Amino acid sequence: MGMLIQSVASINPLQLWSDSNSPVHLQNATVTLIQQDGEIIECRLSFPVTPELYHRIDSEALFNLKPEVRTPLTNSHFQPELDIHIEATLKPDRLPLLRPQATNAEEAAFYLSNLSQQQASSPDSYIPSETNHPFTLLETENWLALSVKQQQNSGEIGYRTFWSYVSPQTLNGNSVSEEELSENITRFFTDVVGGSLDSAVQEFADETVGTLSNFFQELTSKSSLNPSMFQTVLNFFTEDDWPFTKIQGDLALRSAFQGKNGTWDCYAKVREAQKQFVFYSICSVNAPEDKRQAIAEFISRANYGTIIGNFELDFIDGEIRFKTSIDVEGDTLSSALIQSLVYTNVMMMDEYLPGILAVVSGESSAVDAIANIEGE
């Protein structure tokens, strides 16, 4: 598991929208972005509200503040003259809308602020049925409240919700196991009932378990329909029985391929923010300095007429590779697309590898090597 990286930025003001199409005005909010292996796994929003606004949030169950997912209020009662602080996390099925727009909290805050201004200036431009519209990031129903707190002279009071008991990885749908979910629910109910399970509490527990089960079923369904690009790539190479290793700190995999004419390393890399996937076959030999002009001619001749992909030469160290790539902005990366790019790539390297080796060794000129391969 990669290291978690957290960044924080302020956003002020911010306008969200409720199911009743009524705005929720927030001041002095803070955006926290949590990333793992370069991918956003959680986006949190923290903000103070007046007691009047909290009453509305409470009564309308905004930010999914349903009674059945709250722990009891600790120590005292909220005082009417002090602000109440709420921390919420973005629903995981909304993260794909944010990932292409932000690599840190400042960029996330800037993007949400711009969306808020656009929505405020033209509130009728968004139709609620457009489930994948960026404006859904501004809907309170797409945020899960984690905690509600108020700082009083006697100390902090407040309550937590079930969502604060769940790790970002689980909430993100990457590892929703029955064992982990059961443990989370157990810890939640321990705080809710304090070990007392009378019939009334049991009824409450049954209702809560139903609510949570429905949520995670929906989460798993959406996650399977809209996996991250990197997860799609992982799934492909796993299902296609490729041995590979994950490159630490990058959305990339390293593998090897054995063709008819040799064996070489391959790299599969995802650029989530740019919605791009690239696959490389790295030639098993580098071109020595005195052969790089000849190899440059060889790959230039090889590239001419090639429809998918191209050979590349690094003049600094002589590395030779074949690259295939795709940009899926506005679309979805599928296993079929990955398969086409990967196998086109390795077949091209395998076909031209004898010519590369002949030119590198000095056994053939670039012209003759290409002629031998292409039958000219």
Keywords:
376 residues, alpha+beta, Yope Regulator, Chain: A, 2 domains, 6-stranded antiparallel sheet
Order of helices and strands: EEEEEHEHHEEHHHHEEEEHEEHH
> What's the arrangement of strands in the largest beta sheet?
1-4-5-6-7-8
Overall mean pLDDT stands at: 85
- CA radius of gyration is 27 Å
Structural class: alpha+beta
Q: Name the beta content range.
A: 25-35%
How many domains, as an integer?
2
Please give the share of residues in helix: 25-40%
Secondary structure layout plus pairing:
Layout (H helix, E strand, L loop, with lengths): L3 E8 L2 E4 L5 E4 L2 E8 L2 E11 L1 H10 L23 E7 L4 H4 L6 H17 L21 E10 L2 E6 L7 H4 L6 H16 L5 H27 L3 H11 L4 E3 L5 E7 L4 E9 L4 E7 L9 H12 L6 E4 L6 E8 L7 H27 L4 H9 L2
Describe this structure in words.
- There is one protein chain.
- The protein folds into 2 domains: about 5-170, no CATH class; about 230-375, 2-Layer Sandwich (Yope Regulator, Chain: A).
- It has a 6-stranded antiparallel β-sheet with strand order 1-4-5-6-7-8. It has a 6-stranded antiparallel β-sheet with strand order 9-10-11-12-14-13.
- It is built from 10 helices and 14 strands.
- It has helices at about 50-60, 95-100, 105-120, 170, 180-195, 200-225, 230-240, 290-305, 335-360, 365-375, and strands at about 5-10, 15, 25, 30-35, 40-50, 85-90, 145-150, 155-160, 245, 250-260, 265-270, 275-280, 310-315, 320-325.
- Helix content is about 35%, strand content about 25%.
- The chain is α+β, with helices and mostly antiparallel strands.
- Helix 8 (about 290-305) packs across helix 9 (about 335-360), helix 8 runs parallel beside helix 10 (about 365-375) and helix 9 packs across helix 10 (about 365-375).
- It starts with a strand and ends with a helix.
